[in-house]
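Kindly inspect both lines:
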Amino acid sequence: MIYNKDIAFRTAELLLKIKAVKLSPNDLFTWASGIKSPIYCDNRITLSYPEIRTFIRQNFVKSIQESSFEPEAIAGVATGGIAQGALIAQELGLPFAYVRSGKKDHGLTNQIEGELRNEQRVVVVEDLISTGSSSLGAVEALRGIGCNVKGMVAIFTYNLPKAEKSFKEADCDLITLTDYEHLIQRAAEIGYIKEADIKVLQDFKQSLS
């Protein structure tokens, strides 16, 4: 679910302002999941803009404080969730760790970097949710070492049915600052996309339903 409707539109507006959202109806992007898409959202670029970075951090913190999560630690998903996760943990005065997609093949072969306790209540931070596979892989890794994962926060979600189903099955609540619908609506309102683009984006979303 989105944290707040007004925040959803404002977050979408900020992402569009810095061109974090790329549209390419004819030369499709390939997501990590292998899905071919006319849209790509690169939230990492928000870190280069202090005001936007602060806005995102502050609303992540508010969304966590107003939730029932009551975390004892914050964990970021590598790599997109690491920086924001660390900023959130700093503001909340909580321990921070991050989760790789898999174990390293050298050194201590860690998948989770940082110290987390058994039964510690953890909130996971992501930059973006598409199918949810990699994000929930981090949740599984944390639960595998005994952490009590209370939920996840993310900047943006494509609201794909597969992701919604996967999060429900994993019993992991998801709170996002904005989503596909709010992003497309704001993009159309400010002229970031043309009417023909809207049809392409709607058809793409429908094809994944």
